[in-house]
Amino acid sequence: xxxKKKKYYTVWRGHHTGVFETWEDCQAQxxxxxxxxxKSFPTFEEAKKAYKDDYKNYIGKPKTFKSELDxxxxxxxxxxxxxxxxxxxxxxxxxxxxEYRGVDTKTKKQIFIQGxxxxxxxxxxxxxAIVHGLAFLKKHQSxxxxxxxxxxxxxxxKKKKCNTKLEPTAKNKSLFELIRRAEIWLEKNxxxxxxxxxxxxxxxxxxxxxxxx
Length: 213
Hints:
Structural class: alpha/beta
Helix content: 25-40%
Strand content: 15-25%
Domain RNase H type-1: 79-213
Function: Endonuclease that specifically degrades the RNA of RNA-DNA hybrids.
Pfam families: Cauli_VI (PF01693), RNase_H (PF00075)
CATH topology of the largest domain: Nucleotidyltransferase, domain 5
Organism: Flavobacterium sediminis
Order of helices and strands: EEHEHHEEEHEHHEH
Binding site for Mg(2+) 2: 126, 149
């Protein structure tokens, strides 16, 4: 059995900054740190070089991807529909500091971004990102589709309910207000926008991925 490839984590902004050898060590620096900046690298040298450089030169940069699916499987899946937007969320901890965004699938140009929110979860962010995308496309009368890599968020949107087990607190009050607004929007609006599962195994990380891990 092939072991998991070693990664090194650069933290530009966190409780402590520097290069860390495990995700657990990295997570300890970014958990509950508003505006944390971090990213993984395959070698210590790359991580150290990045730490001395500007975070903006690394965030969202695509990683080299080669699908492990065979030719027949790839042909069956096909290529992404570029008449679309892709949405994703990132959370440093569960719960932790969460943000979400939507981008143009082809160009990766950011269309919207929200956060960071305190004491959020990835699933909540994915849910909000889809609803934000639906509202954006309806407002602009666009026929584009939405890609997401979260089946959980897709089911929540279909049910018009953010079925999170997260408890409301003083810190995430604004986040729960946003959830309620999203649920009300789903109740009051109709839409024809297809919400489609992003085929990560065939295409790599979704274009809206924050590119940190």
